[in-house]
Design brief:
The chain is 65% helix and 2% strand. It is mainly α and 316 residues long. Among the domains are: 98 residues, Orthogonal Bundle (Rna Polymerase Sigma Factor, Chain: A); 48 residues; 71 residues, Winged helix-like DNA-binding domain superfamily/Winged helix DNA-binding domain (Arc Repressor Mutant, subunit A, Orthogonal Bundle). A two-stranded antiparallel ribbon has the order 1-2.
Length: 316
């Protein structure tokens, strides 16, 4: 009996050890909580986005020519390809030429149409970059304004006259045209000043500013000829420094006629005084004579020449 009770006590002790939970101290619980706060659980990793492969657009102008123009614009908005932009420039280049030629008809001949076309080409490229197909506006209408604006900017840059002077000149010309159309005759300055409500001093200043010095190209065509070579400005402009051969010969003949029959000293006095424009004192130093002697000889020469020329008055 004693052995049986001892065996039962051992089994009860074993079962008690298995079912009883271990005791945890407060310090251990606080440490475990601090560790959990310091080391939070790892976040779930996100999947990396795989970039989409963009399909390549057309690479040749032949492929672009076979497409609709709207599709070409959509491709350019998507890729901004230089090949597509060059195709659009070539397609709409006729608008640049047409606009430049029409504006050149109202401009002076000094302005070259090629310069206007170059400026308009920059306006066309800006229009291609800024054009939006979703607004429902035709590109031909949109680019015409941009091309004209680029040409006007180039003309303002080429013009050395200030814009204020150009504005005053246009006002004066407009007032003159209105008066001449109303009266049927040429308008005077007083009528123009009264029409513009300006006094004489202010109108004189406006008129002076409205007539700036103009610049003319010497290579400009003067008039057309039957030959293949046109006459230019430089071909008809007068050279005031060049001497007329006929006048040179006549002057030499007159000089020989006047000095004929004079001594060497008298001839030098006439030539140095009237042709070389030297003074009596300078002539005296040159000829080793006094100034009074040169003046006396000059008066004597004039009296003799006057008597000789009276007989030849009909020849002149």
């Amino acid at each position: 009996m004693a052995k049986a009770n001892e065996g039962a006590d051992r089994k009860g002790a074993r079962s008690t050890k298995k079912t009883s939970s271990p005791t945890v101290s407060p310090d251990d619980a606080i440490g475990a909580a601090a560790t959990a706060v310091a080391d939070p659980p790892p976040k779930p990793t996100r999947k990396k986005r795989v970039p989409k492969v963009r399909r390549k657009g057309p690479k040749t102008a032949e492929q672009l020519a076979e497409m609709e123009i709207l599709d070409v614009w959509l491709l350019y908005r998507e890729y901004h390809c230089e090949i597509i932009r060059n195709f659009l420039i070539e397609k709409y280049y006729d608008i640049v030429r047409y606009t430049a030629e029409r504006m050149h008809m109202r401009l002076p001949n000094e302005v070259e149409v090629e310069d206007l076309m170059s400026a308009g080409l920059f306006g066309l490229m800006d229009a291609i970059d800024a054009f939006d197909t979703e607004r429902g506006v035709k590109f031909e209408t949109y680019c015409g304004t941009r091309i004209k604006g680029a040409i006007f900017d180039e003309l303002r840059a080429m013009d050395w006259v200030p814009r204020l002077v150009r504005a005053r000149s246009s006002k004066v010309d407009q007032a003159r045209r209105e008066l001449e159309m109303g009266t049927g005759r040429k308008a005077t300055d007083d009528e123009i000043s009264a029409h513009m409500n300006l006094d004489k001093a202010e109108f004189k200043k406006v008129s002076r500013d409205a007539r700036p010095v103009g610049v003319v190209s010497l290579n400009r065509k003067w008039y057309e000829t039957d030959s293949s070579k046109d006459v230019r400005e430089i071909d008809v402009i007068k050279d005031k420094k060049q001497e007329n051969p006929l006048q040179t010969v006549q002057r030499q003949d007159l000089q020989g006629l006047i000095t004929k029959g004079l001594t060497r000293a008298e001839r030098l006095i006439i030539i140095l005084y009237y042709y070389e424009e030297m003074t009596m004192k300078e002539i005296g130093i040159t000829l080793d004579l006094s100034e009074s002697r040169v003046s006396q000889m000059h008066s004597s020469i004039l009296a003799r020449l006057k008597a000789q020329m009276q007989h030849r008055e009909k020849e002149f």
